[in-house]
Amino acid sequence: MEPLFYHYGYRHEKPVVTVCLVKKGRQFGRGLALCSKLDYPNNSVGAVKAQGRAIKAITRKANDLPIDRDEAIRLLFEAEAPPFKFKAEFPAKLTTYEKELCKMV
Predict the structure, then answer these.
(1) For residue range 36-81, what is the model confidence (pLDDT) as tens digits?
(2) Angle at the Cα of 1 (from 82 to 42), degrees rounded to 5?
């Protein structure tokens, strides 16, 4: 499966949270890129960061980069994203939305 990207929240018509799913065997790695309020959203930068983190998670078979700063937690909430715990997650437990996306691919 090719990397699967989707987004949450928009500012200046650009995504604020970019999510990438990568599948290896029957398991998924998830990578997140969060755009702080001080950054200007950029689709390609977010996609590169999210994909790199998903690959890192699935390669190392471990979670990394915990989302524990108040600003990041608030950003996820404001973007109406699920309360993700890590920017690089393995094995990623797919959300209902992600399960539906994977069916379409």
Answers:
(1) 777 776 678 899 999 999 999 999 999 999 999 999 999 899 889 9
(2) 55
| pTM, entire model | 0.90
What tokens does 89 get? Answer: 């997650």
Are 3 and 21 contacting, i.e. CB atoms less than 8 angstroms apart? yes
Has residue 9 got a pLDDT over 90?
no
Give the span between the Cα atoms of 32 and 8, in whole angstroms.
11
Q: What is the DSSP letter of 13?
A: T
> Count of CB atoms within 10 A of residue 48's CB?
15
Cβ atoms within 10 Å, residue 41: 20
Tell me the three state secondary structure of residue 9: strand
